[in-house]
Amino acid sequence: MSRAWALLAVLALGCGDDDGGMADAGPSDAGAPMDAGADPTVTVTVESEATSFDGRVLVGAFTEESPMTPPVALERLDAPTFPATASLLDVPPGTYWVLGVLDFDPPSPTIPGPEDSTGVTGPIEVVDTDLEITVTLPVP
Description:
Blueprint: H1 3-15, E1 25-33, E2 42-48, E3 56-62, E4 73-78, E5 84-88, E6 94-103, E7 117-126, E8 129-137
Parallel strand pairs: 2-8
Antiparallel strand pairs: 1-8, 2-5, 3-4, 3-6, 6-7
């Protein structure tokens, strides 16, 4: 199984609905310090060549570049307008890769379809502050 297929299969397992193809991701920026006891939030701005989308956008944080396990944090956005914002809550400090999937119909529950678009950024380092990053998902 190729890395792209493996990434999307794991994302699908994490939320029960998904798909993807590769794209570039934008830069990351550090945010404000966290309150004691709370893990950071990774805020992901999802950009696309489209202005809106009738399908699903999935965004997840993974502990490895080619994930074979579910994401540490995941958000599903239904019928978003772009730019859209996903919040990955309570991400423990560590190194992550953030994957975004523009899931065109028909949805594929376990493997991506050729019609889908994916953006991956990483590695990013989550420490004791919130983090903002951008992922760009082109329309295939």
